[in-house]
Design brief:
- GO terms for molecular function: oxidoreductase activity.
- It comes from Streptomyces fumanus.
- Belongs to the short-chain dehydrogenases/reductases (SDR) family.
- The chain is of the alpha/beta class and 265 residues long.
- It has a single domain, classed as Rossmann fold (3-Layer(aba) Sandwich), CATH 3.40.50.720.
- It contains eight helices and seven strands, in the order βαβαβαβαβαβαβαα.
- Helix 5 links the parallel strand 5 and strand 6.
- Helix 1 runs parallel beside helix 2, helix 3 packs parallel to helix 4 and helix 4 runs parallel beside helix 5.
- The longest helix is centred in the middle third of the chain and has 29 residues.
Length: 265
């Protein structure tokens, strides 16, 4: 009996890193489950790209503030596609609000989307992978702010830092089932979340980033695809920074330095 086609479910795959990941995994031969929150047309564009590569695509709306019910979308997509081999927790949100001006609702909104949502979606996918009996891959998209803080992003940093440690616990507990769990921590990537959807990152100057520019969503997708593919089979519990060297400078320097003077001693 031939092996079943592998399936990946990717949250927030209507644009940016999620869309790039969907296309990259479809190129690798996976069928794709796509979630979206507000941009249905974006999700359909992603689905069309996947189908143009000869792979199946299913879409579903999900609002990760409506927990725990929202996580049922993972089960729904798995049923429609027949199984799940890869989960990419990519959907996210944040704030640009000073700590003293934040309200409890602001905090809860970001924590639900960026931490509790991946927690519950991860449970749904892992339980199915265990029942299938042939392992699986979970990739949690965090941020450089999993590792270092940023002014105005208290809830985001708290959520992404928590997701980084959650990733490590998941890796330890799920390893016996052949499931690897890793984090990918992007820096500034040219996506709608950073207001740069139609920007060629190679033409943008970022003096505070050692590589001198923002990243392309496809560069993040390539690392996710490695972790989801056969070459990543012995990698688990790690956080992979895709940031052009930003963490070596500090994220505040990455976005706030206006010259290259730091390059000279």
């Amino acid at each position: 009996m031939p092996d079943p086609t592998r399936v990946a479910v990717i949250t927030g795959a209507d644009s940016g890193i999620g869309r790039a990941t969907a296309v990259r995994l479809a190129e690798a031969g996976l069928d794709i489950g796509i979630t979206w929150h507000t941009d249905e047309e974006g999700a359909e564009r992603t689905a069309r790209e996947v189908r143009a590569l000869g792979r199946r695509a299913e879409t579903s709306r999900v609002d990760l503030t409506e927990l725990p019910a929202a996580a049922d979308t993972v089960d729904d997509l798995c049923e429609r596609l027949g199984r799940v081999d890869v989960l990419v927790n990519n959907a996210g949100t944040g704030t640009a609000t000073p700590f003293l001006d934040l309200g409890l609702d602001d905090l809860r909104h970001v924590l639900d989307v960026d931490l509790a949502g991946p927690f519950l979606c991860g449970q749904k996918a892992a339980r199915r992978m265990i029942r299938q009996g042939d392992g699986g891959r979970i990739v949690n998209v965090t941020s450089v702010h999993e590792h270092q803080p940023r002014v105005g992003a208290a809830p985001y940093c708290a959520a992404k830092g928590g997701l980084g440690l959650l990733t490590q616990v998941m890796a330890l507990e799920l390893a016996e089932h052949g499931i690897t769990v890793n984090a990918v921590a992007p820096g500034e990537i040219a996506t709608p979340m950073t207001g740069q959807e139609d920007t060629d990152p190679h033409t943008e100057r970022r003096p505070g980033v050692p590589l001198g520019r923002p990243g392309d969503a496809r560069e993040v997708a390539a690392v996710i695809a490695f972790l989801a593919g056969p070459d990543g089979s012995y990698v688990t519990g790690a956080s992979w920074s895709v940031d052009g060297g930003m963490l070596r400078m500090g994220p505040m320097a990455g976005s706030h330095l206006t010259s290259d003077d730091w390059r000279r001693p």
